[in-house]
Automatic annotation (TrEMBL):
Localization: Cytoplasm
GO terms assigned for molecular function: 4 iron, 4 sulfur cluster binding; metal ion binding; rRNA (adenine(2503)-C2-)-methyltransferase activity; rRNA binding; tRNA (adenine(37)-C2)-methyltransferase activity; tRNA binding
Paired cysteines (S-S): 119-356
Family: Belongs to the radical SAM superfamily. RlmN family.
Organism of this sequence: Mycolicibacterium confluentis
PROSITE patterns the UniProt entry points to: RADICAL_SAM (PS51918)
Protein name as catalogued: Probable dual-specificity RNA methyltransferase RlmN
Comment field (misc): Reaction proceeds by a ping-pong mechanism involving intermediate methylation of a conserved cysteine residue.
Positions with a binding annotation for S-adenosyl-L-methionine: 177-178, 211, 234-236, 313
Function statement: Specifically methylates position 2 of adenine 2503 in 23S rRNA and position 2 of adenine 37 in tRNAs.
Amino acid sequence: MKQELVFEAPRRALPPRHFADLDEDGRAEAVAELGLPKFRAKQLANQYYGRLIADPREMTDLPAAVREQVAEALFPTLLTPLRQIQCDAGETRKTLWRAGDGTTFESVLMRYPDRATVCISSQAGCGMACPFCATGQGGLTRNLSTAEIVEQVRSAAATMRDEFDGRLSNIVFMGMGEPLANYNRVLAAVRRIIEAPPNGFGISARSVTVSTVGLAPAIRRLAEENLGVTLALSLHTPDDELRDTLVPVNNRWAVDEALEAARHYADVTGRRVSIEYALIRDINDQPWRADLLGKKLHSVFGSLVHVNLIPLNPTPGSKWDASPKPVEREFVRRVRAKGVSCTVRDTRGQEIAAACGQLAAEG
């Protein structure tokens, strides 16, 4: 049965307002509504974004008499960790979150020798219906709020500091959902992530990656925000005939249109675009597709592009599998031969269903 694309999330009650939903002006207004002096807004922001504290009861510079009031009004509990599982000798940790309305979604924290990356969700489920992706096959439940997105980042940053005496360095919007289908909330979350304390976590825009299956108008819109984050386009094949099946949004915005929108992003921001390509045995791994991919990308981007080959991660009941290593190596060689940078992504978390395309938020 063919699944329909879902661009509009089902209508559900929004989570209660949270401090992380608010920009600087909104925070000042919210504090004033509580009858508190405006400087308390900056104080709360320093605690939340700087010290990574989300419970006003632990904010010792806040008068004890108002902590409960502030907690109830601005810091409702949005996310509860239902389950955490680890692999890669504890270097990869997947968290299953439950929101206040019972919605579940996942994020994955990955530690490397030189960095720590959290892969976060922007939606509960996904409406893009890509058949090789467990998330896409599960359908879309709802958009996440700005604060629900930001809380995934704060939690990961606090974990890195408290458990590993380290720092969260990279954010990738490659968890559940199509980020650009939840544009306004994702954009607000990105701003909270990259702005310096007390307005955000102060993570470099260059260390933030926003992934998309190719919503061309939204890619162009993101370019005009001029945030300088990395754009990752999930292409998966260079030809429309196959992409219509692998990435159904291609029926609306075809390969060339998606690539031109990504080129516009590169032109405006000066940032190299990342092309994500899940390599699937006997489906999109043919030598001629590698040649066509390299040729198209070099023609459109010149040097402002990099291909991330992703060995397909198995999902329950899937008929597809990863390409053999010799095929993978030949694919890389052919893309590079066309003058395009190409590497194979280090696959993390397969055994705990935490790798690309595996997130399904099963409770």
